[in-house]
Model the fold of this input.
Amino acid sequence: MNIMSVAALLQNTRQTLFSFEVLPPVRGRGIDPVFKTIDRLMPFHPAFVEVTSHRSDFVYKDMGNGQFKRVEERVRPGTVPIAYAIKQRYNVPVVPHIICSGYTQQETENELLDLAMLDVRDLLVLRGDKAKQDSRFIPKEGGLTYASQLCEQVNAFNQGQLLFGDSHELCQESPFSYGVAGYPEKHEEAMSQSADMRALKRKVDLGAGYIVTQMFFDNARYFDFVRRCREAGIHVPIVPGLKPLSTLNHCTMLPRTFHIDFPDELVQQLERCSTNDDVRSVGIEWCVRQCKELRDHDVPSLHFYTMNAAQMIEEICNAVNI
Ligand code: FAD
Done:
């Protein structure tokens, strides 16, 4: 049976939907915290749930004898089984992220085969973060450099073509449908805003059915981004990504990590905060304001980066009447 893809849901909705992203648990931990996050947010009827994907990195293991051993480890494995578990348990459309970073094309092909067999047909196609030890993105040998190349691999897969085998028949009736990432404040590596826009247009021209944005705290940036996308001929839904601030650490970590600016009014409020609780209440109030204004502008969905901490999102959903 073909059910509607997330891209089609977003393209056809007449009201602002609600959606969120969860992270797979840290290596060796159970899935319960992920389920707890979703349990809290299910009453708000999410239109879809995304599951992030994480490359492996080198970490130093304490050998207990004064020596450290350098080992490669995927700190948050399990995107595919977690996506499937969510789909089965909650009967909600689920969107696993697939990334180039740390993967060979063959490993990606295996993941696509797994997902197709499990009938998980929505993807968010991304390049993925660079390795922690590298100063720039370096693809794994046999891997890809740009998300657009991964879109091409998915497109070929949808045609029944395998790169490492003859062909397959898993996508005949329901091919993968996918979204991609966009950056209202420009991707950190892009040489200019217009170069970044051309890269985004390429992903959409290849078949991305929607865009999810990097988090932002100034709605004006999102509105301007949507305007520039439309001018560039990008007409797919653009889902705003939202993250409520909750700790003093966020005040410096989020701008540094995600290359985003806080608007002055928010900065002034944060400068008066001296505890995590202070930041949390500013963060909730600010995010509620953002949500209300975005919904007044009929955005396709209010999409939250939960970081597996659902309580704040729950409070925001209640305040916004989602
Ligand atoms: P791309 O679209 O490939 O762009 C990367 C850079 O290359 C940009 O600067 C772009 O302008 C440039 N570029 C693209 N094509 C070309 C070209 N042909 N020639 C020259 N330059 C080009 N990371 C994870 O590891 N796991 C996740 O689950 C994850 N989820 C995310 C979800 C969302 C909604 C967002 C916004 C980001 C997510 N990220 C995730 C982070 C993301 O992987 C990084 O921001 C990454 O650095 C870029 O990914 P991308 O898909 O936008 O890359």
